[in-house]
Structures are given as structure tokens and as C-alpha cells.
Amino acid sequence: MTITAAADGSALGNPGPAGWAWYVDDSCWAAGGWKHATNNQGELKAVLELFRATAHLDDDLLVLCDSQYVINSVTKWMKGWKAKGWRKGDGKPVMNLDLLQEIDEAIAGRRYRFEWVKGHVGHPLNEAADVRARGAAEAFQRGRSAPAGPGFRGVQAGTEPKVPPRAAASAGSSAPTLTTERVTERAGAYAHDELFSFDDLDDLNQEVGEDYRDLTDPHGPDAMRSNGELHRVTLSLSTAEHRRVVQRAAVSGVTVEEYLRGLI
């Protein structure tokens, strides 16, 4: 049997009030967050908690994720970082180290694969996880308790499941040490992989350095390198996407062009 679940993170201000969530269906999901964290920390925490919640099962796990940073960190770069003493190709320490080390422990002996899905295009599982992650972030922003969700079937949300010997070494329980990263959206709007993947692209450059060059996405970071020259970019948006851009630009008190530049 394969368990299919979406994992997503959210940060209001990036860093700022943040949330994470994983979602299988309406009776099987979990969410949480912090008063101050980053979008990437939310994305990583969602994946970590999904592996922890399913550690008692002997099923394959398909993780749907809209963050290329997270997917490539787990499936491509983490092995190399670990071999280098958890340092990037440029010798600098890996960011979000505690979360990455906990994920490294949680995936040991597990059968899993990741699938990238574009955020905010109507994918039902991704949208459901996003709504819950954003809801957790907004709850922390308002000083309210965030809905934790029912957890995995038979496992109460917010508790560690009983783990069989096979997975006992993978169920870490320590809380992450939160570090401060850069602010992605200078316009001050909601920081997330909302319309594009600018948050991912910026983080890929800062967090993994030269290692990002092995990306196979033809529209990935290699295609976005800049030598300081100005470039004209044409972007096609759906009606819903255009409406979100206009609304968020208005909330931020900037023009649509200024808002889009702020995302970059």
C-alpha cells in the first residue's frame, strides 16, 4: 500500500508567524507552527512530522511537495552535506540543520518518494495542506491556539506513535532550533510559493550554493542566474492568479509591478 500525503509550510513575513501541515484526507492530517520561523522551516517540519506520524506503518510513502528546496535537500543534497560534516559545497554550514538531521533520522529504513507539485493551481491535497499550514501561521500571528488536526489514523495529533523496532531509530522528538534567514518578499506580503517558486530559487542559491546546479528543472535556478543586466520577463497568469497578485499588491500599498519585483 502507498500512502499519499501533501506536506506544506507557510510564513507570514518570512521570517514571522509560521505554520506547517501534512494532509492525507479530512480525517487524517496534522498542523502546527511557531511564533517566529521561516517558510522553509515550515516546509521541512511538515515533511518531518509526516514521516514521524507514519513511522509505525510498513507502507510506501508518496510525499507531494511544492518546495524544490525541500525535495532536493532530502533526495539529492543531504547525503553530500552529511559526508562533508553538514556543510555546503562552499564550506559554509547548512541552514536549518536540526530539521534536516531529524529528517535524515526519520527516513532511515523507510520506503518513500517525493513528487513536486506546483502550488496554488488547484491540486486538492496541496491546497488542503496549504490552507492548514497558513491557518496555523495566522493563529500564531493572532496569539490563538492553532488547530492540530486529528493526526494519523489511530494516532493522536501532537503525540509520537508507538514505533516498531524497524523504525525506532528514526523517530526523533527534539524540537528544532529556529534560525533567522533572509526576508524574501520585500513588499511585506505573504511569503510562500504562491505564484512562482522565487522563494525556492533564492533559497537554493543561499542555502545550497553550487550544489543546486544538478537540478533538472529547465525553469530552475540555472535559468535564473543574473549578471547584473536588466531582463524583460513575460509572465502569463490565470484569472485567479492575477486577482491574487492585484489584491496582495493593494494590501501592501504598492503597484503590481513593485509587488512582483519584491517577490524576486
Notes on the structure:
There is one protein chain. The protein is an alpha/beta fold. It folds into two domains: 2-170, Ribonuclease H-like superfamily/Ribonuclease H (Nucleotidyltransferase, domain 5), CATH 3.30.420.10; 198-263, no CATH class. The protein is 35% helix and 16% strand. The chain has helices at 39-53, 68-83, 97-106, 124-141, 198-208, 239-252, 256-263, and strands spanning 2-11, 16-25, 28-37, 60-65, 112-116. A five-stranded mixed sheet has the order 3-2-1-4-5. Helix 2 runs parallel beside helix 5 (198-208) and helix 6 crosses helix 7. The longest helix is centred in the middle third of the chain and has 18 residues, at 124-141. Residues 156-228 have low confidence and may be disordered.
Summarize the structure.
The chain is of the alpha/beta class and 264 residues long.
